[in-house]
């Protein structure tokens, strides 16, 4: 079972015009331990926010300081409209959860849990995707290292690849990094001749 996060001491920024919904939301966030700031102007930075809640009914392209779907903190969309364009706007800007308006106090905690969980998952997926792209970019090094091992030790391709994998496992490094080391040693050996 996964534990649910605590929110005490976190800072929330609500990008919404002041109204009854915002008062209910601010009160409930306070009950959950969050410090809240309300503004209806573009957010300049997320340096002072651990969470952003935005009026998706009236949001515009410049209200958030990040590129689409690149939110550095969890984002909750506040939405009363069923207009597909407004829902799409929230999704395009990386909303991790939704609170329907009028705001019900009982909707706030589940939305916070979901937003923080989904945001953490999206960051993890982005990191893994970056790692996979980097490994794919470095794949030609693996091929070149296998070829270098084949020539240097008179091995067939399968044996050279096994040797490279074994070195990677023993050194607890990625195959691509070991391949770079093998190529560097091969280049040094050629230069010494």
Main sheet record: 5 strands, parallel
The helix/strand series, from N terminus to C terminus, equals: EHEEEHEHHH
- Report the strand count: 5
Q: How far apart are the termini?
A: 61 Å
**How much helical structure, as a percent, in the residues?**
40-55%
- Give me the secondary-structure category: alpha/beta
Low-pLDDT runs of 5+ residues are: none
Rg over C-alpha atoms, rounded to the nearest angstrom = 25 Å
Order of strands, widest sheet: 2-1-3-4-5
Residue share in β-strands = 5-15%
Annotate the secondary structure layout:
Elements: E1 11-15, H1 20-31, E2 35-39, E3 51-55, E4 75-79, H2 84-92, E5 97-100, H3 105-153, H4 157-171, H5 175-192
Parallel strand pairs: 1-2, 1-3, 3-4, 4-5
3D structure, described in words:
By secondary structure, the protein is α/β, with parallel strands linked by helices. Helix content is 53%, strand content 12%. The protein has five helices and five strands. The chain has helices at 20-31, 84-92, 105-153, 157-171, 175-192; strands spanning 11-15, 35-39, 51-55, 75-79, 97-100. It has a five-stranded parallel beta sheet, with helices on both faces. The mean pLDDT is 93.
């Amino acid at each position: 079972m996964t534990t649910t996060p605590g929110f005490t001491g976190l800072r929330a920024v609500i990008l919404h015009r002041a109204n009854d919904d915002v008062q209910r939301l601010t009160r409930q966030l306070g009950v959950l331990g969050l410090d809240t700031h309300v503004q209806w102007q573009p957010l300049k930075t997320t340096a002072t926010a651990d969470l952003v809640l935005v009026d998706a009914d009236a949001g515009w392209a410049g209200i958030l300081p990040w590129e689409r779907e690149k939110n550095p903190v969890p984002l909750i969309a506040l939405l009363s409209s069923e207009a597909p364009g407004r829902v799409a706007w929230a999704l395009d800007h990386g909303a991790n959860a939704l609170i329907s308006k009028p705001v019900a106090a009982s909707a706030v905690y589940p939305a916070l849990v979901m937003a923080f969980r989904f945001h953490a998952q999206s960051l993890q997926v982005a990191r893994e995707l970056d790692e996979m792209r980097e490994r794919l970019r470095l794949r030609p090094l693996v091929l070149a290292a296998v070829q270098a091992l084949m020539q240097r030790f008179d091995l067939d391709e399968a044996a050279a690849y096994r040797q490279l994998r074994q070195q990677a496992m023993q050194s607890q490094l990625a195959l691509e990094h070991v391949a770079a080391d093998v190529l560097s040693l091969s280049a040094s050996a050629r230069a010494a001749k």
